[in-house]
Amino acid sequence: MGDLRVLVVDDHPLFRIGVGTLLAAEPGIEVVGEAAGGADAVTAAAALRPDVVVMDLHLPDLSGIQATRHIVAANPGTGVLMLTMADESESVFAAMRAGARGYLLKDAEPDEIIRAVQAVARREAIFGPDIANRVLAYFSRPPASEPVFPELTGREREVLALIAAGHSNSLIASTLCLSPKTVRNHISNVFAKLHVADRAEAIVRARDAGLGRS
Predict the structure, then answer these.
(1) Which residue numbers delimit the HTH luxR-type domain (predicted)?
(2) Which of 24, 37, 93, 129 is the most buried (most CB within 10 A)?
């Protein structure tokens, strides 16, 4: 099948060259290119068609997450391994949603980086130990209950609940400290989003969902 083709993307030259040298020294891996920015990474990936892109998160112009999204959309066969200092959960999950298959921190051991590149090429998901524990904890949490009528904003649900409780527009306005015009606007939005014709129909829908009950 030939050597595993890798593109290394990082805006710090010493780190980029170091990772490239590390990978190129491993039998079966060929570093086919480097890029210092997100836009250059997208262009290089399109031209070189690497098996794996080793991608930093914080890059000039396009971020690593944006670049990953473009690369995976253009060539789903390319695996992306994030190699970054960013260890926030938000960054990890944003990278996964963008299509990255792996996430390592830059303090990973050299052999860990090599194994991660090889695993991503095999279409496996790979995480550093701390990141893996965080991912497992996230998915082991009980799912958050989805609010009723998710198409409504929080304020619109408050207004609907008060309608279902039998409150008049003026009472809703005083309860929520809103102007009567704002209340009317919220009610119009609720009716439109729930596809109901009038207040009575809205009350039925709301009470069926458990709103407005004492």
Answers:
(1) 145-210
(2) 37
Local confidence band at 145 (pLDDT 50, 70, 90 cut-offs)? low
Bridge partners (DSSP) of residue 84 are 105
What would the pLDDT profile of 108-137 be if each residue is shown by its tens digit?
999 999 999 999 999 998 888 777 776 776
Contacts of 168 (CB under 8 A, 6+ apart): none
- The encoded tokens of residue 66 equal 């944006």
d(CA 46, CA 63): 17
pLDDT tens digits for 147-172? Answer: 788 889 989 999 999 999 889 999 99
CA distance 121 to 53: 9
pTM, two decimal places: 0.64
Amino acid making up residue 44: A
**Alpha-carbon span 94 to 28, nearest angstrom:** 31
Helix intervals (H) in the chain:
13-24, 38-48, 64-74, 89-98, 110-121, 129-140, 154-164, 169-176, 180-194, 199-208
Q: Are 158 and 211 in contact (CB under 8 A)?
A: no
**Tokens standing for residue 106:** 């830059």
Q: Which amino acid is at 139?
A: F
159: phi > 0 → left, psi -120 to 50 → alpha, else beta; which?
alpha
